[in-house]
Amino acid sequence: xxxxxxxxxxxxxxxxxxxxxxxxxxxxxxxxxxxxxxxxxxxxxxxxxxxxxxxxxxxxxxxxxxxxxxxxxxxxxxxxxxxxxxxxxxxxxxxxxxxxxxxxxxxxxxxxxxxxxxxxxxxxxxxxxxxxxxxxxxxxxxxxxxxxxxxxxxxxx
Length: 157
Ligand SMILES: CC(C)(COP(=O)(O)OP(=O)(O)OC[C@H]1O[C@@H](n2cnc3c(N)ncnc32)[C@H](O)[C@@H]1OP(=O)(O)O)[C@@H](O)C(=O)NCCC(=O)NCCS
What we know:
By secondary structure, the chain is an alpha+beta fold. It has a single domain, classed as Gcn5-related N-acetyltransferase (GNAT) (Aminopeptidase). 28% of the residues lie in helices and 31% in strands. It has four helices and seven strands; from the N terminus they run βααβββαβαββ. It has helices at residues 15-25, 32-39, 88-102, 117-126; strands at 5-9, 44-51, 61-68, 71-79, 107-112, 129-134, 145-151. Strands 1-2-3-4-5-7-6 form a seven-stranded mixed sheet. The longest helix has 15 residues, at 88-102. The structure holds coenzyme A. Residues 25-26, 61, 77-79, 84-90, 112, 116, 118-119, 121-122, 125 line the site of coenzyme A.
């Protein structure tokens, strides 16, 4: 990482730059409305990564997770294509996992496409383990999802 990284909770002014990253990162991106509704979802947290000190409008990556019933569910994660392989997604995940643990979560879950080798390498490098398969989970190409889990109980992040 050449410049220092800052991670903070997103606000309304971050949603436009988050959505720009979303559109170039996924074949079936979330709509802008989905991101806006996350801001008012009481179960949801949006973390953004950018330069330190924070610069308005400059976003390098984001993580969205839900927290309910002592479970963290990772809903969305992406890094700007020009900022990849600099540890941004790993830092976002570590921060999100630590926050969820502090808030009482005992396990983190996520779904990932088996074809997404970059994401699988990231998650397994952090200690996520494959616990199941959701058949034909992704509507666009009927691809299965792998269900990955990470135990947060009595664990130092
Ligand atoms: C997956 C993604 C979030 C990774 O973001 P990133 O900021 O580049 O990831 P990091 O730099 O933190 O990588 C951490 C580790 O993950 C693994 N990794 C990340 N990208 C990788 C790639 N393209 N190939 C292989 N391993 C990769 C490596 O182990 C890496 O550590 P290293 O760089 O020291 O080898 C990013 O590629 C992305 O936005 N992809 C499109 C959206 C997406 O697929 N999101 C996940 C949906 S489940």
